[in-house]
User: Fold this.
Amino acid sequence: MTKKYDDDFELDSLFEAARNTPQEPSSELLVAIQAQALQVQQSQQQNEPTPRSRHRIAEIFESLGGWPSLAGLSTAALAGIWIGMAPPETVALTAQTLFDPSATDDLFEFSDDTVFAFLEETF
Amino acid sequence: MPLDLSSQTPDEALLVLFANGDEAAARALTLRLTPRVMAHAFRLLGNRAEAEDVTQEAMLKLWRVAAEWRQGEAKVTTWLYRVVANLCTDRLRRSGRIAALEDAGDPVDETQSAAETMQNRSRADALQDALTLLPERQRQAVVLRHIEELSNPEIADIMDLSVEAVESLIARGKRALSAELQARKDELGYSK
Assistant:
């Protein structure tokens, strides 16, 4: 027990001696480190986009739904281009039926008699 | 209004000022942190020239990380101790050796007598000799606990270990140091 106490005591005083005699940096090292600090500081100030602008771009991107939204949008755009370039038969037929300028048939035919009859019933 | 960069300004606040381009913060951080980094690197490496290289590398890493530093996540000193340990480990492993003690300058403490200074130096040197013989992790744990005077939870954070593992490393390290230094008791002024 006494031996352990002695050993601990001696180690403590050795640690204390080490704390009291630290290796100090040379003045050249301090100057070099400070010069590096200022160099890094200046290059970061000059080259990097401001944190505010980066933040704003990120906000807009997030508000659009982020990457999943961008992937969906891209897929839809590609599908649209593909259908426009090489439409499937059913799509072509539907488009022709709906948008053919010569196809101007009315769904209902109104003669003067039916219009008058309708007005008479109403009033 | 001049900024007050006294010793009471936390390291983390200075780092934010540094990232915002404040030159005074760069100076304050250099003067405050370099001596701690240097002393720690020397205790892990036992070689002054290598410790200076590691100090410069570690501080450069700090400047580069400043812009992305997130307040409240880690203490600057904890981060630095970790970086220094990694850099020292890389050097020791690359060279496959335990660094020799050389080029150790003698800092002057005017409050001590010449005899006390000499005894302190010889004790510190003897301790450094014994420390360099310890396995790397034991050495790091003992230095952080008994020379840097950090708490065990802080050391666990730096070394990425549990507190129990840190306690075990320190206990084994101290036993090995005692055994190593036993033969030098008289020389170090511990004779009864």
Notes: Residues 98-110 of chain B have pLDDT under 50 and may be disordered. The first helix of chain B runs from residue 11 to 19. Residues 4 and 24 of chain B are 9 Å apart (CA to CA).
